[in-house]
Amino acid sequence: MSGFVQLLGRLAVYSDAEMAQPWEWPGHTGAPLQVRDCHWRIVESEQAWLATVPAADREAAAIMELAQIAFGDLRGLLAGQREEVLDAKPGEEWSLGELLGHVLITERRYAWQVRYAVNRDETQPTYATPPVEVTAAETSSSLRAWLEILEAERAAGDAFCGGLDGPALARPTVWADYPVDVRFRLHRFGGHLAEHTIQAEKLLRAVDRCPAEARQVVRLLSRLRGCHQRRSAVADLETLDAGHSALASSLPPVRL
After folding, report:
1. Of the candidates 253, 254, 249, which has an alpha carbon nearest to the alpha carbon of residue 26?
2. pLDDT for res 197
3. Alpha helices in the chain (DSSP H)
4. What is the rounded radius of gyration, in angstroms, for the C-alpha atoms of the chain?
């Protein structure tokens, strides 16, 4: 996780002008290339590996893969941002730190509610209040630590939710006072993450941290990795990261 986030942060900080700097593709000869070409070779390497990995073979796993792709977009938006953006608070909006705290508690509540809906017996009510919280230590985390905490929370929830079968998906539950089923709740993981990624992007724009070209490429790479994380072994991802990092080492330094 942290190695990939480091890579995202390294790639994301190139300005639009720096993306047009010359770049030599290691081991290849040909027409002159630019820094942006290195970014795209890394994206295409991720795509190429992902194309060889079988897709999810059950509905619940496919739904949770969509949620991880949504998380990948949020991760790509935030990786490598300066720490001070956590406290930026334009107008009456949440700060980014408050937003991430909301995302974390919601991940925990959704996962708990899914478990409760699947495991409760008929004598128990359809809804119960989740006994979960976000700790003071978590709310004071660095931006990279926030991404690692959210990544771990996603993995913990996915381990259970992604293994559910058809009958479990039809189990009744409650969301925002509406009677729904577990299938609806699983789709809310990805929907909720996407909602607050948009909110985070609006916040960053308000504090003059608009995503430039490099950041947009990094978001695509991180979304691809979200899909990849649901399908591939950790060792395979580490091998892929090593290749990405080796290619990124050929980039010119960023002018800070």
Report:
1. 249
2. 97
3. 2-12, 16-19, 35-50, 59-78, 96-119, 136-139, 143-161, 166-169, 182-206, 213-229, 234-248
4. 20
> Which of 75, 65, 71, 54 is CA-nearest to residue 11?
75
d(CA 90, CA 226): 30
75 burial type by CB count under 10 A (0-12 exposed, 13-18 middle, 19+ buried): buried
Is 0.85 surpassed by the pTM of this model?
Answer: yes
Contact 65, 56 (CB under 8 A): yes
Kindly give the interhelix angle for 213-229 and 35-50, rounded to the nearest 10 degrees: 10
Bridge partners of residue 22, in order along the sequence = 34
- The whole-chain average pLDDT of the chain stands at 94
- Residue 202 and residue 15: Cα distance in Å, rounded? 20
Structure tokens at 90: 């334009």
pLDDT category at 148 given cuts 50, 70, 90 is very high
Give me the residue label for tokens 């909110």.
Answer: 199
